[in-house]
Amino acid sequence: MTYCVAIDLDDGLVFASDSRTNAGVDQVSTYSKMHTFEIEGQRLFVVLAAGNLATTQAVVNRLQREMEEAGQEGAAEPNLATVAHMSEAAEYLGRINREEQEKHSEALSKSGMKADATLIIGGQIAGEPPAIYLVYPQGNYITTSQHTRFLQIGESKYGKPILDRIIEAETPLGNAARCALVSIDSTVRSNLTVGPPIEVLVYERDTLEMDHYLCLEAEDEYLRSLTHAWDENVKKAFTDLPRFDWEHRHGRKDRGTRVSRRAKKKS
Question: Which InterPro entries does the UniProt record give (predicted)?
Fold first, then answer.
């Protein structure tokens, strides 16, 4: 399984993904699910991938090849080097994804497998605002809104609550990156098919540079300290929650009395 998240903020974009593709008693595989494409000073794209590994690898390889061949005779159009808007990049990615799925779907269906892949593409083209898009297996796509600042793919339910509570358009990039890590950590704790290494990429708006990238292994000191701090603060927040009225009135004596009455009734 997979969990990837992309966050769209006033100050830029944040991407995070796990790297586990198979988890079982005797087999754990890891592959990067974060892929970058860049023309220095002109445009950059980040693609997060979830779904059939063969499909996602074929899609990524084709994106890279067609971008490199841009400008050559017979080169595919459009490609990531020629699209004028981020929405065009999402549409192009959707078409590539659909075509690669169709190549393998019949053979895979005979063995009970699906060729489906779901992707997130984000980034910025010079002169355009940064943006992120979620591309479905069918090729259609959605983007963020003022009220929905993040997009998720894969095992998303465990990591969504923290994002809902923290992420706003004005959230600083550092806070958003930490929130993404906590979101992934919460998913790792609840689902063994999601796991490290965890990749995080923070893009500062209008820089057209990918300067802030981390790949965190399970034993990474920063990741361990972040996880420990989050656990301790969650426990403290829980113990500080408002008490019920009956807790203030009766305390431990009330609990003991009820137990005694229950025991007396049984006798």
Answer: Ntn_hydrolases_N, Proteasome_sua/b, UCP009120_prtse
Phi and psi, residue 262, nearest 5°: -65, -45
Please tell me the distance from the alpha carbon of residue 79 to that of residue 133, in angstroms, as a whole number: 16
Domain residue extents for the chain: 3-218, 219-267
Instruction: Measure the CA–CA gap between 9 and 5, rounded to whole angstroms.
Output: 13
pLDDT tens figures, 171-190:
999 999 999 999 999 999 88
Among 43, 131, 146, 52, CA closest to 91: 131
Give tens-digit pLDDT for 34-59: 999 999 999 999 999 999 988 999 99
Q: Which residues contact 174 (CB under 8 A, 6 or more apart)?
A: 202
Superfamily of 3-218 according to CATH: Aminohydrolase, N-terminal nucleophile (Ntn) domain (3.60.20.10)
In 10 A of CB 253, how many CB atoms? 9
Contacts of 228-231 spanning 24+ positions with Cβ under 8 A: 230/182, 230/185
